[in-house]
């Protein structure tokens, strides 16, 4: 059973760690661990308890808000100090590899939940109402109480699935968006003459355009399901351009171009 009030330690007080702490603080006792002096200072100024040694992490729930590239080392650091029954959660944007790492490195006496909040600091600026969180249970049953907490206290929609199915679906819903954001960035500024659909597309791309490089790298390079989609997209764009240009080319007679 979780304690009352729920206690949560967040590892990593970067952009998402700050957002998670702010969302959870009104409903739980939140503490923060970060190796950075500046991050600890920022957390302290916002009123959060600071954990200075991993051996002092006794919270019910341990949230690993670290980049996917740093997750394995974080797991190795905390594994010897976790107590029986704690629930460890990652919030990486990909799920198969984090799930594998947590299974491999965390002791059998802790419970494991892979998760992906389907929002970030940019999109959360407009609020998190009706936002979704994907939960991929790996070990234990306490995740069910946490899911109820997230749904009832914070109003999040909960999707429960496997790490593989998460990565398969987000390769299209998130991975392609990041690829398009990078591609559109090479085309220059958005034109002033545009349709509403073009504006909406630009708004969607802008939400991910300023993500930290490590986040984009994890989404684009760490999801094994994205590469085939990328090739399918390139093929579709190429074939559409060729067929449509040929289909709508102005008619020509006697070798002379058509004149309006």
TrEMBL record:
Claim: Oxidoreductase is one of the keywords in the record: yes
Pfam families cross-referenced by the UniProt entry: PDH_N
GO biological process, one term: tyrosine biosynthetic process
Domain of life: Bacteria
Coiled coil: none
Domain Prephenate/arogenate dehydrogenase: 6-260
GO MF entry, a single one: NAD+ binding
Keywords: Oxidoreductase
Protein name: Prephenate dehydrogenase
Organism name: Litoreibacter albidus
Lineage: Bacteria, Pseudomonadati, Pseudomonadota, Alphaproteobacteria, Rhodobacterales
């Amino acid at each position: 059973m979780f304690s009352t009030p729920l206690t949560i330690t967040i590892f990593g007080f970067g952009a998402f760690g700050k957002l998670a702490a702010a969302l959870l603080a009104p409903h739980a006792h939140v503490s923060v661990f970060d190796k950075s002096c500046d991050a600890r200072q920022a957390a302290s100024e916002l009123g959060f308890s600071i954990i200075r040694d991993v051996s002092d992490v006794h919270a019910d729930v341990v949230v690993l808000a670290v980049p996917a590239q740093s997750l394995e080392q974080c797991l190795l650091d905390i594994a010897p100090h976790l107590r029986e029954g704690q629930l460890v959660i990652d919030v990486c944007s990909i799920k198969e590899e984090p799930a594998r790492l947590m299974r491999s490195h965390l002791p059998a006496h802790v419970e494991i939940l892979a998760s992906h909040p389907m929002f970030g600091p940019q999109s959360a600026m407009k609020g998190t109402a009706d936002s979704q969180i994907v939960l991929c249970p790996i070990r234990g049953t306490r995740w069910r109480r946490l899911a109820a907490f997230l749904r009832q206290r914070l109003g999040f929609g909960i999707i429960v699935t496997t790490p593989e199915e998460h990565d398969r679906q987000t390769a299209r819903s998130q991975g392609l968006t990041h690829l398009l954001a990078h591609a559109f960035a090479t085309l220059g500024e958005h034109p002033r003459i545009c349709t509403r659909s073009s504006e909406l597309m630009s708004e969607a791309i802008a939400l991910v355009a300023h993500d930290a490089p490590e986040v984009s790298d994890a989404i684009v390079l760490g999801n094994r399901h994205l590469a085939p989609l990328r090739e399918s997209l390139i093929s579709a764009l190429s074939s559409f351009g060729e067929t449509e240009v040929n289909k709508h080319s102005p008619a020509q007679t006697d070798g002379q171009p058509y004149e309006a």
